[in-house]
Amino acid sequence: MAALDSSSEDASVDSKSEESSEDSRLEFSEEEETLVIRMFNLVGERWSLIAGRIPGRTAEEIEKYWTSRYSTTQ
């Protein structure tokens, strides 16, 4: 029984560290943010197109950043 408890604790620690690393990836520089805003105004929610202009960023990261920062449906 103790082995089950420790493995479930390990899983929760792993998921917490993944969440915090995702949160840190949602920190965009001012230049990245400006580019995302400008591109969004030009092409809308075409996240992959926007991501193509920002090295090291994925479409999913940009969409998540946009919705967490600018979405009005929260």
Note the main attributes of this structure:
mainly alpha
Topology:
Blueprint: H1 2-25, H2 30-43, H3 47-51, H4 59-70
Describe this structure in words.
This protein is an all-alpha fold and 74 residues long. Helix content is 74%, strand content 0%. The longest helix has 24 residues. About 8% of the residues have low confidence.
Outline:
With 74 residues, this protein is mainly alpha-helical. The chain has helices at 2-25, 30-43, 47-51, 59-70. Mean pLDDT is 78; it is low at 15-20.
Low-confidence stretches: 15-20
Based on CA atoms alone, the radius of gyration comes out at 17 Å
Work out the helix count: 4
Distance between the amino and carboxyl termini: 41 Å
The computed structural class is mainly alpha
Report the major sheet: none
How helical, in percent, are the residues? Answer: over 70%
Shape: globular
Q: What is the mean pLDDT? A: 78
Tally the beta strands.
Answer: 0
| Beta-strand share of residues | under 5%
Give the SSE string. HHHH
